[in-house]
User: Fold this.
Amino acid sequence: MSETILLALLLIPCLVVAIVFHEVAHGYVALLLGDPTAQEQRRLSLNPLRHVDPVGTLVVPGLLALTGGPIFGWAKPVPVLKQRLDNPRYGMMAVAAAGPGTNFVLALVGAVVLGLSLSLGMTLGYSDGGTPIIVSADGSLSLLATFGFFMVLVNVFLAVFNLLPIPPFDGSHIVEGLLPPRAARAYERLRPFGMLLFVGLIALTWLAPGLNLLGNTIGLPVAWAVDQYLALADLIAR
Assistant:
C-alpha cells in the first residue's frame, strides 16, 4: 500500500471524528440548556452517516486535498432552536462554543497519543509530497503517531476556522451574544449574507494565492495553537 493511501486512510478518520464530535457537542449542550431538537431528530449520535454532508464532508475536502489546499470540511449542522433554550442569548453562545471546544479537547488527545509515540523513539519526517509524518528509527511510517499528529492539526484548524466571526460559523453566535441587544440585532441581519462572504474569501485564496489570505488570518492562531500541543507532546515524550 502506497504512503499516499496510508496518509489518506489516517487523515479521513481524523476529519470524520473531528466533524462528528463537533456537531454532537452542539446538540448535547443545547439539550442540557433546554433545547431537545437535536435529540428529537436523532442527531445526538456518533454514527457518521447521520452527519455526513456530501459536499462539505466529501467533495470539498477531496478537492482541497487534490489541489494542495488546507484540508477542512463540515457536516450537516445539528439543529438548534434558539427560542427553546432556557436563556437564548447566552445559551447560543455556549452551544456555539461547544463545537470548537470539543475540537481543542480532541487535539489534546492527539497530542497525548503523539507524545507517547515519540517516547518510543519516533521522529518527525516528511512524505514524498511534503506532508509532515512521524517515522520510526528505520524510517518507516508510524501509523499511531501520525494519526495523533493529524488529530492535532485537523482539530486545531477546524476549531479556529469555526471561530471566525462570519455567519453561520460558531464565532458569529459568540460575537452576537457579546454585543449589546441593539447591535446584536443588526449583526443578526447580516446572517443571510455570511455564506456569500465565506465563498468570496475562499475564491480569493485561489484567485490571489500571493495574498496568503488564510496564512495571514487563521494561519497565525492555528500555528500558535499547534505549537502548544506539540510542546505538550514533546513534554510527554520526555
